């Protein structure tokens, strides 16, 4: 499952769960391209809580399902990586935060892609603020609200 060669985006979408509200390929490409237009080879995998928990425990030593995990392989000359979104967690967080599932998913894709590009929010306050600033800018360009508006 790939986009046309002219976009320089090789996108594989894996749906390891059945859900009628998963984002469309068109939405995912739009969110990805809002972060950057450089060449990329990406896999986005939508999983259940069991797989999300097992992967988080295996790779990060955290025994719970988290919203998004990023696995970067290359950043230059082509961005290569995987994003795993745990769909039950995404849905739950959207409801808790009073956001649509679409808007919350867009934010998590943007957030995960920034990790693939080398950004981090766990290495210090300045880096966290820089990453959040980029996320706010990208989300605004996409027509969504500030994803951190109620957190600060």
UniProtKB/TrEMBL annotation:
Protein EC: 3.1.-.-
Q: Which UniProt keywords apply?
A: Cytoplasm, Endonuclease, Hydrolase, Metal-binding, Nuclease, Ribosome biogenesis, rRNA processing, Zinc
Which metal ions or organic cofactors does this protein require, according to UniProt? Zn(2+)
Chief place where the protein resides:
cytoplasm
Statement: the UniProt record of this protein carries the keyword Membrane: no
Does the record's keyword annotation contain Metal-binding? yes
Enzymatic class: hydrolase
The UniProt record gives the binding positions of Zn(2+) as 111, 115, 121
Per the entry, the cofactor note is: Binds 1 zinc ion.
Q: Which InterPro entries match?
A: MetalPrtase_cat_dom_sf_prd, YbeY
Q: Where in the cell is it found?
A: Cytoplasm
Q: Which HAMAP family match?
A: Endoribonucl_YbeY (MF_00009)
Outline what the protein does. Single strand-specific metallo-endoribonuclease involved in late-stage 70S ribosome quality control and in maturation of the 3' terminus of the 16S rRNA.
Its family remark reads:
Belongs to the endoribonuclease YbeY family.
Q: What is this protein called?
A: Endoribonuclease YbeY
Q: Which gene holds the coding sequence for this protein?
A: ybeY
